[in-house]
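Escalated from tier 1: manganese (II) ion holo job.
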Amino acid sequence: MLSQYLAQNSFEQLSKLTEHGFCVMDNFLPNASILALANEISALNNVAKMHEAGTGQVKVSLNKALRGDSIYWLNELDASAAQLVYFKQMALLRSDLNQHLYLGLFALESHLALYPIGAGYKKHIDRFKINHTRVTDQSVRQISCILYLNQGWLEDDGGELRLYLNQDDAINAPELTIKHLDIAPISGRLVMFLSDTFYHEVLPANKARMSLTGWFLTRQ
Ligand code: OGA
Ligand code: MN
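Tier 2 regenerated the structure:
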């Protein structure tokens, strides 16, 4: 049995993840929790606790050109009520993923993110495929999960997640034969994709854009 999410079509979406490597689930959390998480970002930002994100691969001065968001790493041991709702749903999701896709996911790392007006994140991948013989005993990002917190987001607001679909299995799915898919960051929407497979970018928006990004980790 699949665990109960708010999302009506979660089983269907999880099979899409198996088949195509990505999926989109709407209504992943109750709206009250989404609102609370968005308010937490505003509050953290007001007391200067959201910090400029780094990419880890380039000099700090170049980071800003690559990504314009500020982030705040979450700690499950020190979670707010709304964050606990998130962690609980993610735990259910992780166990479903492990049960149905045998992924061996054992942990989650997550951060809140705030993109100011006009900020984006240039085309990138969340994990590079690494030579397995050189890296041992290391946890790596297996699935990227982005939960959007933007109430009343309109099409004209921009800020889409652009997911590049250059996969072999695009051949089997006519809807995937387009080169990329633009996904609007609407409130309660969770996008999941394989971290080492999909290049993606965040398009600039004309409103501040909020999200909670999580990565399920697996052992290399
Ligand atoms: C990231 C990322 C996408 C988004 O944080 O690595 O690609 O839509 N986020 O926020
Ligand atoms: Mn990314």
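The radius of gyration is 17 Å.
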